[in-house]
Amino acid sequence: MRKLIGYILTPLFYSCFSIVLLIFHPIQWLSLKLGGYAAHKKSVDILNFFLTACNYTLFNSVKFIDNKKLPLGRSIIFVANHQSTFDIPPLIYFLRRFHGKFISKIELAKANIPSISYNLVHGGAANIDRKDPKQSISEILKLANNMKTKHWSAFIFPEGTRTKDGRMKSFQVGGIATLLKKNPDALVVPIAINRSYEMVEYGMFPLKPFVPMSWEVLDPVDTTDKNPEEIVKAAEDAIRVKLR
User: Fold this and answer.
1) Which of 191, 183, 243, 193 is nearest to 220 (CA)?
2) pLDDT tens figures, 35-86
3) What is the DSSP string of 94-149?
4) Residue 166: predicted pLDDT
5) Residue 158 DSSP SS3
6) Number of folded domains in the chain?
7) What is the pLDDT of residue 23?
8) What number of CA atoms fall less than 13 Å from residue 39's CA on the CB side?
9) Were both Cys, which of 23, 187, 204, 235 would link to 79 (CB 3.0–4.6 Å)?
């Protein structure tokens, strides 16, 4: 029965999602041209509010547990597990005050996806070519420098790929180590994403309805006297505890 309801509701979800992307593509362009970074960011924040709201067409709930103790004006490396494509909009919207940028595959930036590709190209993301290590390092270093000079933050999914069954893969150190090298004072904050993988349990069609999904921002990792490997392991362990 649940899968059958998914067949009925999924076209509604994709229709809403697509309409939001199409509407905000020219809004992003206009915001950037007329108001620069600040106006463009505001348009992206609002875009992701509506993309997050699309979940309710499936009767899927979004519970975001923020951490109000995190300081403003300081770069943060948000380290999260990755369960589905739809993990991203709530992160951008609910943590918009931190100016978080993603480390993303260059294919997405080149795919001409309305709103999404435009934001990846013009919004400050690090768009990496996994087949070109030099280009990848250059992109991450550019983001790291922006974090240092503009107090931006970064979102990174260190598993490298999405899980299909909710079980976390081991975290990779590379990108986080590069960001920390340029920003040794940056906070490293784990985020536990739970049950969003259930939304795509049947694949991208139909999507699964009635899924209670949650995002929880945890306390910063204590980085004192820790090397990048130990820092990443501490973040991974903190997330695993929350997902038990």
Assistant:
1) 191
2) 999 999 999 999 999 999 999 999 999 999 999 999 998 999 999 999 999 9
3) HTGGG-EEEEEEHHHHHTT-TTHHHHHHHS--EEE-TT-HHHHHHHHHHHHHHHHH
4) 77
5) coil
6) 1
7) 98
8) 11
9) 235
Give pLDDT tens digits for 157-213: 999 777 777 789 999 998 899 999 999 999 999 999 999 999 999 999 999 999 999
The contacts of residue 113 (CB under 8 Å, 6+ apart) are 21
Residues sharing a CB contact under 8 Å with residue 8, sequence separation 6 or more, in sequence order? none
Asked if 25 and 114 touch (Cβ cutoff 8 Å), the reply is: yes
* Burial class of residue 196, CB neighbours in 10 A (0-12, 13-18, 19+): buried
169: left (phi over 0), alpha (psi -120 to 50) or beta: beta
pLDDT score recorded for residue 121: 96
130 pLDDT higher than 90: no
Domain residues for the domain of 57 are 2-242
